[in-house]
TrEMBL record:
The protein's name: FHA domain-containing protein
PROSITE patterns, A to Z: FHA_DOMAIN
The FHA domain, residue ranges: 155-238
Gene3D superfamilies for the chain: 2.60.200.20
Amino acid sequence: MFNPFKKDRSAQVPDVKMIREQGLVFLKEELQKLEGGEGAHVQVITLFIAPPEEQQHLYEAAFYLKDQEKLKQEIQRVADNFALELPVNWKLEVIASDRLGQDLIADKSLYLAIKIGTTPLKTAPALIEKTAHITVLQGEAERNEYLIHRTHGRVNLGRGSQVQAADGSLRLNFIAFADESGYTGNRFVSRKHAHLEWDDQKGGFVLFADEGGIPPANKTKVRSAADENPLRLNASDVGYLLKEGDQVILGESVVLLFKYIEEN
C-alpha cells in the first residue's frame, strides 16, 4: 500500500503540514505497540520536539505549541481512524527542548520523541483466607469452640447432630446442641434452626434462619458489638452478613460469639 511518509525525507524540504503528518504517523506507530494496538491504558502522551534552530518556528507551528488542544484533536482523530481506543480523559503535553533524552522513544530524523504514560497494572491483592471462630457462650453443644473455613460450604446449626427429614434424608448439624441437656435453653433450639454460608461477593459468612428458626416456631437473632438492639431474622431467604464480635442468639438464650481469623 502506498505510504507518502516512507519517502526519502532528506530529499524533501520540510514544511509545517509535512512535519505534522510525519509526526502523527510516528505517534500512531508507537501507540499501536501498546496492548496489541489498543491505547485504552494511556494516561498521558508527552511529545518532545528538538529541531535545529532554523526549523524551530516550523515545528512550533506544526505541533500547535501555543494551542495544544488542536494537536490533541488531531491525535484523537488518528486514534479513532485506527481504532486505538484512547481513553476519554487522556492528556497531551508538548515540550520544546534542545535535545532528545536517551530514555525517550525517539525518531531523530524527525527531531521528535514521545513518552507514553500508561495506567499501571493493578497487582491482585493477596487473598485473605477467612476462617470463622465460633465460641458457645451459653448453651450446651458438642464442642465449646468451632472453626469454619470458607471452603466448608453450608454449615448447619441445630439441636441434635443428625435430623431425619420426611423424605428420609439426613440433615447434619455441624454445630449441634445436645438433646438431653441440663441447660433449659437447648430446648428452644430447633433441629433445623439456622445455617451459615460463605459469600464470595460479600467476603464473609452469612447467617440464614431455617424453617425451625423463624417465628412463630423459634427465634434467630444477632446482636452486633456496636448495637445493643438485636436484629431478628424473620425470613429464611434473607441472610445477615456476620461481622467481628457479633453474637448469634438461637431460641431464648443460646448464644454464640462470632469472630474471624484472617490468614494471607
